[in-house]
Amino acid sequence: MKMKFDILTLFPNMFSSPLQGSILGKAVEKGLIEIQTINIRDFTLEKHQVVDDAPYGGGQGMVMKVEPIARAIESVKSQNRSAWIIYLTPQGKPFHQDLARRLSTQLHLVLLCGRYEGVDERVRELFIDEEISIGDYVLTGGELAAMVLIDAVSRFIPGVLGSDRSAAEDSFFNSLLEYPQYTRPVDFRGSRVPEVLLSGNHSAIALWRRREAIRQTSLRRPDLLAKARLTEEDERLLEEVLQGKSIGDRGLRNADEGQK
Ligand code: 4FV
After folding, report:
1. Cα 241 to Cα 31, 147, 208, 236, 238, distances in angstroms
2. Considering 18, 41, 67, 90, which one is annotated as catalytic?
3. Structure pTM?
């Protein structure tokens, strides 16, 4: 079943190039996802097409008016009542891999991109199903956040990452960071690819990668390690890592043991 993204924005052209070409562009060509931009300005009634106004109570900046956004959302809802309306805003819940996976089970996402100081509060009260933030910083608009969401969610759509790949192998799957990756040359200015990766010994390689994922996570994101579901073997590897046991040889040795 194709997944549909409707993007409500004042700058539809921003979406032309980022979503063309590359993996997302191919996914659109393959009919796996559909991305449509809807210009909120097309839903203004008066000739000046005003979409923002000064905030009641004074203060800096402008606020996006409720009426054009209401009409735009109602026009989408008139085509599909079960469309899920998301507002990208710093006040939203933090976006993360599990949320991306959950959203990928929806068939029709509508992404509202704010501008200026944001939208009139009645938009949130009356029309928004979920508010999502891509990070604790302020953007000039929600468009880039919408692109981030579309990219991360689309990776869970079967076939988007290519036949053999699935987003399930990614970083953050089971909330561990990715293990180090290497490719040719074996030796770059004296820095060599770890022997185990050249050994062809797949169980030793898997063990090394697991240990490195745990090491990288414990070094860089201990907060993630705290919520990772670690197996008994993972706990053992974590112990090793914390005791700073060397990787190389132990890894190879261990793996072979099993085979004898
Ligand atoms: C944002 C974020 C974000 C706030 C004011 C748009 C801007 C302007 N959206 N995650 N961080 N939005 O900064 O999602 O209206």
Report:
1. 45, 37, 11, 9, 5
2. 90
3. 0.88
